[in-house]
UniProtKB/TrEMBL annotation:
Single annotated GO MF: metalloendopeptidase activity
Keyword Cell membrane annotated: no
GO terms under biological process: proteolysis involved in protein catabolic process
Highest taxon listed in the record's lineage: Bacteria
Limits of the Peptidase M48 domain: 59-248
Protein name (Swiss-Prot/TrEMBL): Peptidase M48 Ste24p
Length: 480
């Protein structure tokens, strides 16, 4: 007990010593790093992002996004830091910001926007996270509560106290999320107004993304799946939210002149030809088949299995999400290693049973099972300097035989692409067309590669979901 006054004194010093003025509000916020440290943290994180994510190879579009983002950043509360805007080659509908001004927007989000003003609203929102130092503040809270937990544990001799403080710290971080997102929306609207855009573009974006989220959620629910959506208030708050309406209204008072930038046609022209969905660099999913032109490989998955193509792993699971098979790839320095030698090296001292060597055009493979309560199917395929490593597993405890035959079928389906495969592996692309008199989305959907989803997806792409129809002369996004 005699240590508690000292503990309180130390905690007070920690909190007071970690305060700094918010660049936006001027109020004192709890932070534990300088601006120089923030820049270093953002640079380090951006280098990791570069290793994990591919940037879109479209210099014209990248320059366009950088130009609009820079214009907004120049009107922000932290115009002196170097902002870098990047388009990520991902079909996911998302955007995010790192400390220090590194901002990313996925092409999957860009194609669902319909004007330069809407893109500016997303970029402005992410700039708001940087100017208000949201990433730094959350990092500081996490660091601070961890240190506080350690001090409480030392001062009281009660490990539970440290655990409790960590729980509270986690709650504080999560609790900040809602307010920070609203603050970023307000700042984004303010930067839009100062740059000559309609602040209401924030609401337009929220409405479009909310429609996309609703449609995807309905579709996922019908299939018994979960859906990932864009972070923040853009996905969780309705456009009629009172606080959101207030921050947008406040920004409207900052607009100058009658002419406000929209940039619909210019923006849509930038999207013409953009890949929709998977890209060849990441591999293409067509039904139950995965095709990768650069790796010259094809895999076939059992009917009903869900294929998830991620930058670091190709994952597939059974409809009930109980069985999983994952594929990773690596480059070999020793081209003389056999598939069996490689697999045994990767599993270490674990025992292998039911081993089987197999081969195909240009490659050799080896597969086996790791027995036990959590038995797994593993395999390696070696082709020149390329190695493809598989692991199949299931949730909980149970016989591997429930899924093993399907695991083996998937692994043994590995083969190089045929001429027909290469044609099928061509990506879908956004194309612009002028709506003609009498056009409907049902007509435009006929023959679309989007299949049964075509009519709904075309409405979503053109901000006319769920029942809108095109107007004659209007530029429309279609998928071909």
């Amino acid at each position: 007990m005699i240590f508690r006054p000292l503990l309180v004194f130390v905690l007070a010093g920690l909190v007071l010593g970690g305060c700094a003025a918010n660049p936006v509000t001027g109020k004192q916020n709890f932070v534990m790093m300088s601006e120089a440290q923030e820049m270093a943290l953002g640079q380090q994180a951006s280098e990791q992002i570069a290793q994990q994510m591919s940037m879109l190879k479209d210099p014209k579009l990248q320059a366009y996004v950088q130009r609009i983002g820079t214009q907004l950043a120049n009107k922000s509360h932290r115009s002196g830091i170097p902002y870098q805007f990047n388009v990520v080659d991902s079909p996911d509908i998302n955007a995010f910001a790192l400390p220090g001004g590194h901002i990313y927007i996925n092409r999957g989000l860009l194609i669902y926007l319909n004007s330069e003003a809407q893109m500016a609203a997303v970029l402005g929102h992410e700039i708001g996270h940087v100017t208000a130092r949201h990433g730094v503040r959350q990092q500081s809270i996490a660091m601070g509560t961890g240190l506080i937990g350690q001090l409480i544990t030392i001062g009281t001799g009660m490990p539970a106290a440290g655990d409790l403080s960590n729980m509270l710290g986690t709650a504080m971080v999560r609790g900040y999320g809602r307010d920070m997102e609203l603050e970023a929306d307000g700042l984004g609207a303010e930067y839009l107004a100062r740059t000559g855009y309609r602040p209401e573009a924030v609401l337009d974006v929220i409405g479009a993304l909310k429609n996309q989220d609703t449609y995807s959620s309905q579709k996922a629910a019908a299939q018994g799946k979960q859906v990932e959506s864009y972070h923040g208030l853009f996905s969780t708050h309705p456009t009629h939210d009172q606080r959101l309406q207030q921050v947008v209204a406040q920004a409207q008072g900052l607009t100058t002149g009658d002419a406000q930038r929209v940039g619909r046609d210019d923006y849509l022209q930038m999207l013409d030809g953009m890949i929709y969905g998977d890209s060849p660099e990441q591999g293409i999913v067509r039904g139950q088949r995965f095709l990768h032109t650069e790796l010259n490989m094809v895999l076939d998955y059992p009917k009903g299995w869900v294929i998830l193509n991620r930058p670091d792993v190709l994952l597939a699971h059974t409809p009930d999400e109980q069985g999983f098979i994952a594929l990773t790839m690596e480059n070999l320095s020793n081209t003389n290693v056999s598939a069996e030698e490689l697999l045994r090296a990767r599993v270490g001292k674990q025992r292998l049973t039911q081993d089987l060597a197999f081969s195909g055009t240009g490659y050799k493979g080896f597969t086996a099972t790791i027995p036990g309560d959590n038995a797994r199917r593993v395999a390696a395929i070696v082709r020149g300097k390329q190695a493809f490593l598989f692991i199949g597993a299931f949730r909980g405890r149970g016989p591997l035989e429930l899924y093993d035959e399907q695991f083996v079928q998937t692994i043994r389906s590995f083969r190089p692409l045929t001429a027909a495969d290469k044609k099928n592996a061509q990506p879908m692309r956004i194309r612009l067309v002028r709506a003609r008199q009498g056009d409907t989305y049902a007509k435009l959907a006929k023959g679309s590669p989007l299949g049964d989803e075509a009519e709904a997806r075309l409405r979503l792409l053109n901000a006319q979901w769920p029942e809108g129809q095109p107007k004659a002369g209007q530029w429309l996004k279609v998928v071909r």
